[in-house]
Amino acid sequence: MSAEHPFYRLAPFIQEYIYRSGWEELREVQVEASRVVLDTNHHMLIASGTASGKTEAAFFPALTLLDQEPSSSVGILYIGPLKALINDQFQRLEGLMRDAHIPVWHWHGDVPQSEKTKVMRHPSGVLQITPESLEGLLMNRPNAIPALFGDLRFIVIDEVHAFMGADRGSQVLSQLERLSRMAGCSPRRIGLSATLGDYEAVKSWLAGGTRIPVELVSPPGGRKLRLSIENFAMPDARDERQSEALENAKKSYNNFIYDHTHLKKALIFTNSRTVAETTILEMRRIAALRQQPDVFHVHHGSISSMLREEAEAALREGYGPAVAAATLTLELGIDLGSLERVMQLGAPYSCASFVQRLGRSGRREGAVAEMMFVCAEEDDEEAQLPARMPWTLLRAIAVCELYVKEKWIEPQTVRKLPLGLLYHQTMSVLRSFGEAEAGELARAVLTLPPFANFTTEQYRELLEYLLATDHLEQTEDGMLIVGLMGERVSGHYRFYAVFQDEEEHSVYDGSEEIGSITTVPPAGYCFSLAGRLWKVEEVDSRHKAVYVKHAKGKVDTLWLGAGGDMHTRIVRKMRDILRENTLYPYLAPNAAARLERARRLSRETGLTERLVLPAGGDSMFVMPWIGSREFRTLERLLKNNLSQQLSLRSIVPMEPHYMVVAGRTDADELQHLIVSESERMEDSIQMLDEFEAPYLGKYDEFTPPGLIRAAFAADGLDLEGLRRGLRGSDYGA
DNA sequence: GACCTGCTGCGGCATG
């Protein structure tokens, strides 16, 4: 290495750290990022694989500059999407800066007040924070902002893909602009991500509100992949003659999972919390039967952070095997070390998710990334068995093909008129001002980058509506202040987050928190959580706590979900795979025979199966299959309980034009079937299209209906049509 | 029978 090499330009304590860690050289991404940071004044987007050293690539050169010219306030602000990720990064950075005399602070809901007070007293070094805590700072402590961030040099946004495309991302952009104005600083931005489809879109997102160019650092990855798909065809659960065959099929499915994981550091991804729970229950049952050790963990959004950290530590550290079944909680960048097996039960719903999950395997450089798909066709009341299409298998293949062969990942779209967020930031800005003239407020809010498409006239309409609905109030001398309703909404701590949530009860076994539930069973009833069974002993409604003890037997899990979003392109790919008849190469030999048998039976029985396909466009597609039961449930809800609109959000199609496939599942006939519409289904879908709830965000409900219409139209949705349809039916009221 | 994220201020009490 010549003396010009970026390594020798890094601060001495960083060179020390690199030696101490036993690294022989900087990774390519770190070399490139160092050049960008040290030689330009531009923003930077680092897009490279998981565990490629992105965090170090951002911090090595940024800290070097900070070391050369110490900052008189916080010098680097790191924004992360998860508390767990911040805690993980906090430990890694602390190791790096042990000898550097640059402090690392973290700030989120679990950080004690005493620590936050320390940062306020000695604003310096690196501060790691969540968007919600940053909102709290901007809103409630505006006078502390100049001292905290007056000399801020860098803002690092981790896992950019987790923010962009959602209101939470626009919230971050808005906060960055507010922070710069309040503190009088103009920091450079560094975005980190492993999963990105369209770099140009992300670059312009990252620069939002500034005129500084964004440099892309994205070294070619080229990892080798090893993918395998195992498909289990389950016999019909309702056919009594088949009950023994079904038992055997389930047994071989579970034994397959057990045999391929229990001696390794293994991660089993599932698509639902329920499957994660039931799988680990099964694994524990098999372990007990075989008198082998219990090495199993469950990791999802309703598991307490303590149990999650236990699972993470077991995978990362220690000798011997550890197996965790997880939902997307283990997709993001928390360090898990190098895993020996990554399994996926069923197929992922998106290519982005597939790539993230793939990134969990083969983390050492040069290693092969491996993913073992295990599909089992689920029971379907509507289907006439034994001939069924392997929909899950098809989706697994479609996702693999799209990513591996076409390098395609779902593009992220940003709302053109984020109305709910406009309300949110208006209230937040007004609270930080204390009071403001209407014009002053408009200048402060409407110039924030996410709101560039709103007109002054539209903002006036919003403010007038908010005055009329008591969210705002006008003082005698014409100043705007937060009104009674506004106080109720923005005065509560839940205001900091811009996404919807449900109230949860914590579940305790003695003093140990196991996790949380939203549906609380009465005392005496059982449920499963964290891969074990529990019996409710006592419910403390006031403190939102449920006390439980261990139980035996068999019970359902508590989570009820209904459908989700899947990109049109994945559905089209599934259709193409069927049409091209290219399914066979992906199937294990016996599975191909099973499928052949299924197809023959399909022809003989004239089986009907349904598939809902969007007619065109690249907008989001909703459910791969919708049963009449779901429609009945929807109808009932629509008629009786419109207040439940928001909870229906995920069941409702997001694009107004659909066509229906109804009929045989034979591939040759599919072309014909796509144009043969079923009237009943069409009616039901029409009804869903007329339903306006799916587009409402947490704060949209506080904004004027006329503006909501304009905002939807901007994103290509015709609310007027939807409204008319509603009035014309029984569901209008 | 899809998934996930986040969170304040203060009263009451014990302790040094």
Summary keywords:
733 residues, 16% strand, alpha/beta, 41% helix, DNA-binding, disordered C terminus, 5 domains, 6-stranded parallel beta sheet, Rossmann fold, 27 helices, globular
Helix and strand topology:
Elements: H1 6-9, H2 12-20, H3 28-39, E1 43-47, H4 54-68, E2 76-79, H5 83-96, E3 104-107, H6 113-121, E4 126-129, H7 131-140, H8 145-149, E5 154-157, H9 160-163, H10 167-183, E6 188-193, H11 199-207, E7 214-217, E8 225-232, H12 243-259, E9 265-269, H13 273-289, E10 296-299, H14 305-316, E11 322-326, E12 341-345, H15 351-358, E13 369-376, H16 391-404, H17 419-433, H18 438-446, H19 456-468, E14 472-474, E15 480-482, H20 484-490, E16 505-509, E17 512-517, E18 526-529, E19 532-540, E20 545-550, E21 566-567, H21 568-580, H22 589-605, E22 609-614, E23 620-621, H23 628-640, E24 658-663, H24 670-675, H25 679-689, H26 705-714, H27 719-727
Parallel strand pairs: 1-6, 1-7, 2-4, 2-5, 3-4, 5-6, 8-13, 9-11, 9-12, 10-11, 12-13, 16-20
Antiparallel strand pairs: 14-15, 16-17, 18-19, 19-20, 21-23, 22-24
Helix pairs in contact: 3-4, 7-10, 7-17, 12-13, 16-21, 17-18
The protein binds one DNA strand of 16 nucleotides through α7 and α13.
Structure description:
This is DEAD/DEAH box helicase. Residues 35-214 form the Helicase ATP-binding domain. The chain folds into five domains: 6-217, 3-Layer(aba) Sandwich (Rossmann fold); 225-406, P-loop containing nucleotide triphosphate hydrolases (Rossmann fold, 3-Layer(aba) Sandwich); 419-491, Winged helix-like DNA-binding domain superfamily/Winged helix DNA-binding domain (Arc Repressor Mutant, subunit A, Orthogonal Bundle), CATH 1.10.10.10; 505-550; 609-727, 2-Layer Sandwich (Gyrase A, domain 2). Helix 17 packs across helix 18. It is α/β, with parallel strands linked by helices. The protein starts with 5 loop residues before the first helix and ends in a 6-residue tail after the last helix. The protein has 27 helices and 24 strands. The longest helix is centred in the first third of the chain and has 17 residues, at 167-183. The structure holds one DNA strand of 16 nucleotides.
